[in-house]
Amino acid sequence: MNKHKPIVIGHRGAAGEAPENTLASFALALEQGAEGIELDVHITKDGEIVVCHDATLDRTTNGSGLICDHSWSELKSLDAGSWFSEAFAGERLPLLHEVFDLLPRGFFINVEVKHAYEGRMEKALLAFLRESSRMEDVVISSFDHKVIRRIKQAEPGAKVGLLYAANLMDHTAYAGQIGVDVFSLHPHHQCIEQEDVAAAVSSGLAVYPYTVNDLADYHRLIASGVSGIITDYPARLRELLNL
User: Fold this and answer.
1) What CA–CA distance (Å, rounded) separates 82 from 91?
2) Which of 18, 37, 111, 195 has the fewest CB atoms inside 10 Å of its own CB, making it the most exposed?
């Protein structure tokens, strides 16, 4: 195995063992030795940044409809844990600042922007990060690479990453075509090969493949020299890295 050890990044916390994108899930990832977490954000009707993967409430809460059609006061009492297990009944949708309050300063936080919301998300997120004084802890990623470019143009101090699910001809060259300084690549783990990782890392890019849960894939990606691995099972990856 390669001597290089990637950082362990909990996908939506420890989503394999707790309800995704809840404070319980993030706390579990932290307890299991994750060095970073990945989370997803949406914005409410009244401008609050809510941590949730889907644009809608239906899958992971006892509510329904679009998050952006509700005010925070309408969302804050929803149950976001029972769908996963009765043991997590009463878990709530967290606000982004609540997750930041939970995690120690210096902890790696990958914030995935799911939708631009006509630019409202970029403005709200950057305002929050500036106020938090934790810009350095955060990488903002998105499948919408135009959003990533706008965020970097609006805040040169922000670190931005490109999410994608294609085995590009030249991953590093693509990052160079965005028109801003890209910090990291976030490919689907089956869409990047060892030589692509080597080229990206040698050009100064971090590589954080998602979502990796099998031991064989852990071994393959560790050997390829990735910077971090996004996983639903932080404890499983931590145990392997500690061998």
Assistant:
1) 8
2) 195
